[in-house]
Specification:
The chain is α/β, with parallel strands linked by helices. It folds into 4 domains: about 290 residues, 3-Layer(aba) Sandwich (Rossmann fold); about 110 residues, no CATH class; about 130 residues, no CATH class; about 130 residues, Four Helix Bundle (Hemerythrin (Met), subunit A). Helices cover about 40% and strands about 15% of the residues. The longest helix has about 70 residues. The relative contact order is 0.11.
Length: about 800
């Protein structure tokens, strides 16, 4: 992170400041005015985290955190040239080429001064993939924010308080986008929150067309205990729906609908589990758009955090620059609640929040009292300093905190000099930040962002051609149909044949084709591996031509579940619906028991539970856990094992080191005593010699009895002086031997730590694949129904 700085002498000491990654689990706050070096400190933290295998999600309101992509291991001027600020070159009166060379030389000297080799830039560059996401813009990787409001994770649905917070924050973020009332008392917020909760509790996600429709016909008649019409009449709901519809129809709005979904797992980890740095650049957005996106992203981050397992080691970082406005002391914007929840709860899941601001009076210090580490740089006003000291006192509750000492230290800070107050350490320390591995050139332009992200944008999805619709009995049979005939009425089937309709969003006449939907559950168990897991599987089979057969072996797995089935066809254009014929054998309804047995046999042959195993850690993946999530969990497990091993060794070596320190202390005391005695003997000897010489000088006989006695005393004094000097030398030798023992002990400790925490790279380990077959008795066919598939 940097080196310890001595404020009285204003010098940097040759003592490295090391920061334990586990300390970030209790979050950090970075405060400093413009020019204090706040951005460099935080980018350094992110660089070190990436080198340690920890991913970061970054919210960048200014556009300068994308500098993390400007990493040039060769430190060549040509690498710097495309990214220099040409205005700076003109101010210095040099050509852009010369300025690029100056910047390359500056970075080479800066890294060398801090003992960092260019190879460390390569190490950071290789450690994590960096992506710039630009919601509402095609400059970076676009993010699909308004395409759908997906159903949140089950852990949120199971917690009424979390669900209430999530629905309210989602609704408030959307209303902020519309510049509508987002206060907790607003009827718009209440209506949208209830619409989201109602849909999600029914297992549904919402897209914008469905939300606009739900605003007009919400599917419930009351809000609380009062009638919906008395609180929010249909006329007013229509006006809100039109406002949202006009937003959708506005030019440029399509940019909010296109791009990758907000999938925190894939944004933080690659397919092999390699950590990523996801930078969300929002400098191009207006205030309402920023608030909407940030609150939506924070809610997704909170949902992902809640779905992780508990840990005491750092799993991921959430960093937000310029937090003022998103975490105010009094107001309650949509971004505040998820941030506050993350500050209170994310530590249990190993997610550390790092929040930065240059305006300390504009943030909620009561919420930030949850932060265990404070990095404080140069502040602009006394009011800022007083607010920071208030926050430090709140964070240090229950521990010793010297406000006066901290006040004096804050008044003396310069550029890149920070006071760190870490609750995990004995007291505050002042340090100077290290030189960044990334080239800090300032905010990037839209064109520069586009250049950096060229080749990283996913290819646009191809829109499938519309399926031809059969409209007459003379037309060609639709795919998968057993007959060419169609009718505008569904066939009459016996009550024993359950029939349902698969969902569709088509607004034109629909042709329905008969399919057989098999819904089953499979219980997998392996006592040796300790696996017990139930999986729901659904298959959609097509009827073959001729004599009725069902080929379950080639039936397609489907995501349709019983919750997706509708007892009636789509209402839109229902007068013109067409229904393909069903086989006569199906009309009899007597083959269902046979088809169930055939489905169970096919599942026994086709299905198996595949798990991954790490030979190094002897860890097994969870059922349905993707490879990148498993590799991520392996990395976390390895980090926990490393931290535990390091702590165990610290406890083992602590008594030995403490005993040596005590012996060194006593040895230093002995040296001091011997030096004092030696100095006293030397003084006494000089006085005896001086007295004898003075007596002779004043005319006494040199060989008088008095002078002989004084000379003898001087001689004895020389002997004592010699003895005391020897004692000092021996004491110094003993102290030096003890220091050498301490150095050997520290070397042995580090060697033991390195041996116990040998690096394990989960991204490259070859994983084993284990297949668990089900027993026939553990296969249950829950339902077999006629499912009408629209086209």
């Amino acid at each position: 992170m940097g080196k310890v700085y001595d404020l009285p002498s204003k010098t940097r000491l040759d003592e490295a400041l090391l920061y334990d990654s586990k300390d970030l689990v209790t979050h950090a706050v970075c405060v400093g005015m413009t020019g204090s070096g706040k951005t460099g400190l935080c980018l350094g933290l992110i660089e070190e985290a990436a080198i340690d295998g920890i991913p970061s999600l970054i919210i960048d309101p200014k556009g300068d955190l994308s500098n993390l992509l400007l990493t040039f291991p060769d430190l060549a001027a040509a690498d710097f040239a495309p990214w220099i600020n040409e205005d700076d070159a003109r101010k210095k009166g040099v050509t852009p080429a010369d300025f690029a060379q100056q910047q390359a030389d500056l970075w080479r000297r800066g890294l060398a001064e801090w003992g960092q080799e260019p190879a460390r830039i390569r190490r950071f560059k290789d450690a994590a993939d960096v992506t710039i996401y630009t919601p509402g813009s095609a400059a970076g990787v676009q993010v699909s924010v308004l395409k759908s409001f997906d159903r949140p994770a089950q852990v949120i649905l199971n917690d009424p308080e979390l669900l209430r917070e999530h629905t309210a924050a989602t609704a408030a973020g959307l209303l902020a986008f519309l510049n509508a009332d987002t206060s907790p008392q607003s009827r718009e917020l209440t209506l949208l929150s209830n619409i989201f909760a109602n849909a999600w509790n029914q297992g549904q996600s919402l897209d914008l067309p469905a939300l606009i429709s739900a605003i007009q016909t919400p599917g419930f008649s009351k809000l609380g205990v009062m009638e919906l019409e008395s609180i929010f009449p249909a006329k007013d709901r229509f006006a809100l729906a039109m406002q949202l519809n006009n937003l959708v129809a506005a030019p440029g709005f399509s940019a909010w609908m296109e791009g990758v979904p907000i999938d925190i797992q894939s944004m933080l980890y690659g397919p092999s589990g390699k950590p990523r740095i996801a930078i969300f650049s929002i400098a191009h957005l207006n205030d309402g758009e920023r608030m909407f996106f940030v609150s939506r992203l924070l809610n997704q981050m909170l949902a992902w955090t809640r779905a992780q397992t508990g840990t005491t080691s750092l799993r991921a970082l959430l960093y937000m620059d310029e937090i003022a406005g998103y975490f105010p002391p009094v107001a309650n914007p949509p971004s505040k609640q998820p941030l506050l929840t993350l500050m209170k709860q994310a530590r249990a899941f190993g997610v550390g929040c790092v929040l930065a601001t240059q305006n300390p009076v504009d943030i909620d210090y009561k919420g930030l009292s949850n932060a265990g580490t404070w990095f404080i740089g140069r502040l602009q006003t006394q009011r800022d300093k007083d607010r920071v000291l208030d926050g430090l006192e709140g964070a240090a509750a229950g521990t010793s905190f010297d406000r006066a000492t901290a006040d004096r230290a804050l008044s003396s800070l310069g550029a890149r000099i920070f006071l760190m107050n870490n609750v995990h350490e004995d007291g505050p320390v002042v340090f100077e930040t290290r030189w960044c591995l990334s080239y800090l050139r300032g905010p990037l332009s839209r064109q520069q962002t586009k250049l950096l992200m060229d080749g990283k944008r996913p290819a646009p999805a191809l829109t499938p051609a519309p399926t031809p619709m059969a409209t007459t009995s003379q037309g060609s049979p639709p795919p998968g149909s057993t007959r060419g005939n169609v009718s505008n009425k569904p066939p009459v089937l016996p009550p024993s044949v359950a029939q349902y309709f698969l969902p569709t969003r088509q607004t034109t006449p629909i042709t329905y084709h008969p399919r057989l939907l098999g819904i089953a559950s499979i219980y997998y168990a392996d006592a040796k591996l300790g696996v017990q897991s139930t999986h729901n599987v659904n298959y959609l089979a097509t009827f073959a031509g001729g004599v009725i057969t069902l080929d379950w072996e080639h039936a397609a797995p489907t995501d349709y579940t019983q919750e997706d089935l509708d007892p009636a066809p789509a209402s839109v254009g229902s007068d013109n619906h067409a229904f393909a014929d069903v086989p006569p054998e199906l009309s009899a309804g007597k083959h269902f028991d046979l088809w169930k047995k055939q489905l169970a046999d096919a599942l026994f042959r086709r299905e198996c539970l595949q798990l991954l195993r790490s030979p190094t850690l002897d860890e097994l993946s969870l059922p349905n856990e993707k490879e990148n999530a498993f590799r991520t969990r392996l990395a976390q497990r390895a980090r926990e094992m490393r931290d535990a091993a390091s702590e165990k060794l610290r406890l083992k070596y602590a008594p030995k080191l403490a005993a040596l320190e005590e012996r060194i202390r006593k040895a230093n005391q002995t040296i001091a005593v011997q030096q004092e005695q030696s100095a006293a003997a030397k003084t006494s000897t000089f006085m005896s010699v001086g007295t004898a010489i003075l007596g002779a000088f004043l005319g006494r006989k040199i060989m008088s009895a008095g002078n002989v006695s004084k000379a003898a005393s001087a001689a004895r004094g020389f002997n004592r002086q010699s003895k005391e000097s020897s004692d000092v030398a021996r004491a110094q030798e003993s102290a030096a031997a003890l220091l050498e023992q301490r150095e050997l002990l520290e070397t042995q400790f580090q060697a033991d730590v390195d041996a116990a925490t040998s690096r394990f790279d989960p991204t490259t380990e070859e994983l084993e694949t284990l297949a668990i077959k089900p027993k026939k008795s553990n296969i249950t066919i829950k339902a077999l129904v006629l499912a009408w598939e629209p086209s």
